[in-house]
Design brief:
Largest sheet: 6 strands, mixed
Number of helices: 4
Shape: globular
Strand content: 25-35%
Structural class: alpha+beta
CATH architecture: Alpha-Beta Complex
Helix content: 10-25%
CATH topology: tt1808, chain A
Order of helices and strands: HEEHEEEEEEEHEEEEEH
CATH class: Alpha Beta
Radius of gyration: 16 Å
């Protein structure tokens, strides 16, 4: 469940690096959130399907696809680890600017983030992270619901805000607004 952990101070990325590996955490505005329990089988199947489809699409392009666990340090450009207070591990990230990649993960905003809903993460993914990713100028954000076989797609507009989302079902073809030609059959995502 995504419950804030109790710490006596605001955590930075530097603090995060010194924590034990016993559990996966994300940090949003210095507050650590527990990422347990482990994802369901359906969640993992959808994640693998999306990974395969995205890797196939981007194999001849300059962008790279990364799957969790992969640290994304938002608002971190030009900052030391102790000054970074937003660390997330999206289910999938697509990064086109290779300068954002380092040995620790991604320093800055990916071009595309995909979060796959779990019962314990739905509120966090639909509200907290949606707002965080909009503020961090993530160009496209997909929320994938494996239980209801739906995809909610947000695209950053010219006003640097997400407009109303596009919704797709397993019967639809999910078409990226950001990446020309990226069209994924819903059946292949949810099968």
């Amino acid at each position: 469940m995504n419950i804030p952990k109790s710490f006596d101070k605001r955590l930075s990325y530097s603090d995060y690096l010194n924590l034990t590996d016993e559990e996966r955490l994300e940090i949003i505005d210095g507050v650590p959130y527990n990422m347990t329990p482990a994802p369901s089988t359906k969640h993992q199947q959808v994640s693998m399907n999306l990974s395969y489809l995205l890797m196939d699409f981007f194999k001849e392009k300059k962008c790279e696809v990364f799957a969790a666990p992969f640290d994304v340090r938002l608002f971190s450009e030009g900052k030391a680890d102790e000054e970074v207070y937003h660390v997330v591990q999206p289910d999938l990230s697509v990064i086109c600017d290779k300068r954002k990649l380092d040995e620790k993960g991604c320093a800055g905003s990916p071009d595309l983030i995909i979060e796959i809903l779990s019962p314990s993460s739905a509120k966090m993914d639909k509200l907290t992270k949606r707002n965080l990713y909009e503020e961090a100028l993530v160009k496209e954000y997909w929320i994938v619901d494996p239980q209801n076989e739906l995809v909610e797609l947000y695209h950053l507009g010219e006003n640097e805000l997400y407009g109303k989302p596009d919704f797709f079902s397993a019967e639809d073809t999910i078409e990226s607004i950001l990446f020309n030609g990226l069209k994924l059959e819903g059946k292949k995502i949810f099968s």
